[in-house]
Design brief:
The protein is an alpha+beta fold. The chain is built from 3 helices and 9 strands; from the N terminus they run αβββββαββαββ. It holds the Pfam family Pvc16_N.
Amino acid sequence: MIYEALQILSEQLDKHLSDSGLKNLVILENIALLETADENADNLKGKVVLTLINLQEESALRNIPNYKIKDGKTEYRNPPVHLNFYLLISANCDTYDKSLRSLSKTIQFFQGKKVFTSTNTVYNRNNVAFDVIDYFRFNLELYTLSLEELNHVWGTLGGRQLPSVVYKVQLLEIEQDIKLATSGVITHIGGDLNDINQ
């Protein structure tokens, strides 16, 4: 679901920038390739690049019991993994002013639409990866890095710093459909209660 969420964000942002007069700008790729001799490095020129830079499990939701009642049976499963991930959006456009305009329009888009669901989002359903998606929901929140953290990010990526912004994408749920056990539903409790003082 990580790729699917990033692809949906990429498509949505590209449509917004195209509607703003900045056509065919967005690409989902590793910005670290920009300073390499990799064949994909040329694809990053003149683009707004979306790069996953970190994943984080939402630990508050880790220990929730996970079971479903289906056809009169209780199905037990491992709880889903809830992830937050950090998305670096870098503007590597032809000119500095176009990079800044692209970045401004990007922030404007995500300010106007912070919540993405399967009902409020139009995406390319012909992509093979989207065959298994029934429902999704995730939120975007602007994440501000300090100058030191920003320096570490760009140092790790091995390149010069570009105009960029980081978003925290919250609560992406990943679950495999595997039952651990099945049992009957508890409908009543039997037995006698005795007074412990007797």
